[in-house]
């Protein structure tokens, strides 16, 4: 999910996870952000923002839109929902857009700031917060879901002598907020207290991962969701493997997909008893039927649409899956169009 600028002598390569990596000097990881993260081009609220594209049949004002346009130049990556509204982060400057999936209307909830990045995002119902991971900035931010105001920032410096972290996706459980790091075999953790009080900044820590998971070149762990009450699921983008993680110990176990892989796996979403895996460069969403304890699974189908353009993440609302079109590989700019595509859930 994105990155930071590199030196003028950097060269680009595309890993299986679909991001463009720029290697140069001490800084790696530049995804297709137009300018440097430290000096992003501000997205503009063009005339298409919030425009409704009515369904092909029954196209009335009450019909559910099949697409929601985001502000021009938004550079989206992560999306989440509180059950009624969608929240979409911006790679360009960390802004957050809130949209109504029933009407397609929307507005900027949290304005961006130079040097800020929004990659993965998840809604915390207990505290009415949006938890956002910041890619190479190595932070997790807690935003008020009503006002967009930043309530607290948790920082996770890279290991001494190592390269930048890349905090890619995030999930909120009853006990903690967990973020994946695509560069280091760790989860970043913000433990949660009872009630709505946020923990102090010093409470943030990392969790070393052991077991089946092995990191390779490129983007590793990416999307993450809950697996029952005591485990997590995460996809490894470059290998296409799915892992079950025990957050109490950091132990990982590969989910047996009976010979199938989920290469380019990005965001994960659970809905209607199935796991939906967004495969960015493949322009599709894999549908996985997992066993009772998520130890095995079978790929039972896929969702796609002509409007998908390198999708990154998805959020389920009622009977629809709203998919972000990150358009990695398309040069970004302040007038570049971005949108969400609605897919029907199986």
Summarize the structure in words.
With 346 residues, the protein is mainly β. Helices cover 0% and strands 43% of the residues. The protein has strands spanning 11-13, 21-23, 52-54, 65-69, 76-81, 86-90, 96-99, 106-110, 121-124, 129-133, 139-144, 150-155, 167-172, 176-181, 186-191, 205-208, 210-211, 221-227, 231-236, 241-246, 251-254, 265-271, 274-279, 284-290, 297-303, 311-317, 320-325, 339-344. The chain has a five-stranded antiparallel beta sheet, with no helix packed on it. A hairpin with a 4-residue loop joins β20 (241-246) and β21. The chain is globular. The chain starts with 10 loop residues before the first strand and ends with a strand.
The structure class reads mainly beta
List the uncertain runs.
1-48, 50-62
Kindly state the number of beta strands: 28
| Mean of all residue-level pLDDT scores | 86
Helical stretch tally: 0
Distance between the termini: 27 Å
Percent strand:
35-45%
H-E order: EEEEEEEEEEEEEEEEEEEEEEEEEEEE
Strand arrangement in the largest pleated sheet: 3-4-28-27-26
Q: Summarize the amount of helix as a percent range.
A: under 10%
Q: Major β-sheet, in short?
A: 5 strands, antiparallel
Q: Tell me the Rg in angstroms.
A: 18 Å
Characterize the overall form.
globular
């Amino acid at each position: 999910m994105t990155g930071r600028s590199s030196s003028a002598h950097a060269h680009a390569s595309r890993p299986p996870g679909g991001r463009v990596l720029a290697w140069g000097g001490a800084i790696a990881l530049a995804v297709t952000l137009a300018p440097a993260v430290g000096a992003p081009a501000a997205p503009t609220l063009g005339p298409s923002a919030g425009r409704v594209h009515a369904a092909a049949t029954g196209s009335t004002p009450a019909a559910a839109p099949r697409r929601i346009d985001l502000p021009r130049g938004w550079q989206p990556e992560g999306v989440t929902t509180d059950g009624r509204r969608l929240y979409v982060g911006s790679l360009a400057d960390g802004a957050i857009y809130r949209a109504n999936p029933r009407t397609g209307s929307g507005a900027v909830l949290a304005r961006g700031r130079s040097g800020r990045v929004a990659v993965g995002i998840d809604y915390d119902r207990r505290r009415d917060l949006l938890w956002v991971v910041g890619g190479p900035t190595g932070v997790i931010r807690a935003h008020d879901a009503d006002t967009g105001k930043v309530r607290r920032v948790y920082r996770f410096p890279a290991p001494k002598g190592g390269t930048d972290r890349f905090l890619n996706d995030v999930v909120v459980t009853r006990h903690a907020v967990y973020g994946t790091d695509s560069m280091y075999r760790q989860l970043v953790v913000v433990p949660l207290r009872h009630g709505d009080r946020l923990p102090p900044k010093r409470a943030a820590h990392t969790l070393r991962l052991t077991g089946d998971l092995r990191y390779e070149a490129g983007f590793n762990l990416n999307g993450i969701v809950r697996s029952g009450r005591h485990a997590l699921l995460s996809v490894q983008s470059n290998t296409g493997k799915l892992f079950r993680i025990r957050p109490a110990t950091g132990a990982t176990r590969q989910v047996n997909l009976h010979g199938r892989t989920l290469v380019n796996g990005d965001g994960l979403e659970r809905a209607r008893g199935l796991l939906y895996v967004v495969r960015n460069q493949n322009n599709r969403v894999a549908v996985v039927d997992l066993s009772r304890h998520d130890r095995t699974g079978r790929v039972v189908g896929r969702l796609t649409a002509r409007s998908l353009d390198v999708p990154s993440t998805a959020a389920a609302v009622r009977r629809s899956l709203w998919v972000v079109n990150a358009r990695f590989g398309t040069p970004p700019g302040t007038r570049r169009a971005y949108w969400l595509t609605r897919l029907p859930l199986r």
